[in-house]
Amino acid sequence: MADKVALVTGAAAGIGAACAKRLAQDGIAIGVLDLDAARCADTVSAIKAAGGRAVALGADISDRASVRAALEELRAAFGPVTIVVNNAGVTAFTPFADITDEQWDFIYRINCRGTFVVTQEALPDMKAAGWGRVVNISSSSAQTGANHMAHYSSSKGAVITLTRSLAQELGPLGITVNNIPPGSVLGTIMSEANKAKFNLSEDTLKQTIPVRRVGEPDDIANACAWLCLESSSYVTGQTIGVNGGRVVS
Fold this sequence. Notes:
This protein is α/β, with parallel strands linked by helices. The protein has a six-stranded parallel β-sheet with strand order 3-2-1-4-5-6, with helices on both faces. The chain has helices at residues 14-25, 41-49, 64-78, 101-129, 141-144, 150-170, 189-197, 202-206, 217-228, and strands at 5-9, 29-34, 54-58, 83-86, 132-137, 175-180. The protein has a single domain (5-183, 217-232), classed as Rossmann fold. The longest helix is centred in the middle third of the chain and has 29 residues, at 101-129. The chain contains nine helices and six strands; from the N terminus they run βαβαβαβαβααβααα.
């Protein structure tokens, strides 16, 4: 994988940072992208300290010009981008009757439009290479629904459907597209928001998960790395649930 270049969005911390570091272990050069490049310094430093290659990038993933500029910077540093991990996202808790048009549009602009824009902008490199990997990070709440999260869970449901559609369209080009819907993961903004919203202790949360532990960012990152391997080329359009059994299929 040493000739591969990956863009990981929302990679300043949490799941995105873990995915960036894990892919770097396989020799992949990483574009560590977040809203502000300065936020990415710790992730980039950790990758370089471990002997990897990384560059910090700043972009609003819903803004095409911003994404295009970030990708050009990444290409200039390491070459064509053939792996994309769409991890960046936003969440909110609002009773359905109280969701405003602005709140709805914001959630969809980042979670759906952002995934669309980033993937589309990287696509020419993958088509030229005849090889590509797209891993979308969705949410287990998209599979189950979630109280007071109609905007968030439905936006992540759209990401799952987008994954299935792109897998069929891009498969003949040598590009696989899969999605990982995490369950509760320690230390992420969304997981901590859930715990605070429902006043859950970690011990209480564990009892709701069949494996009796809360996930860690590395759990998601390991699945992401596997989906990016050459040996996973026959896996596409799939939902790989990494949730400790919260959702079973």
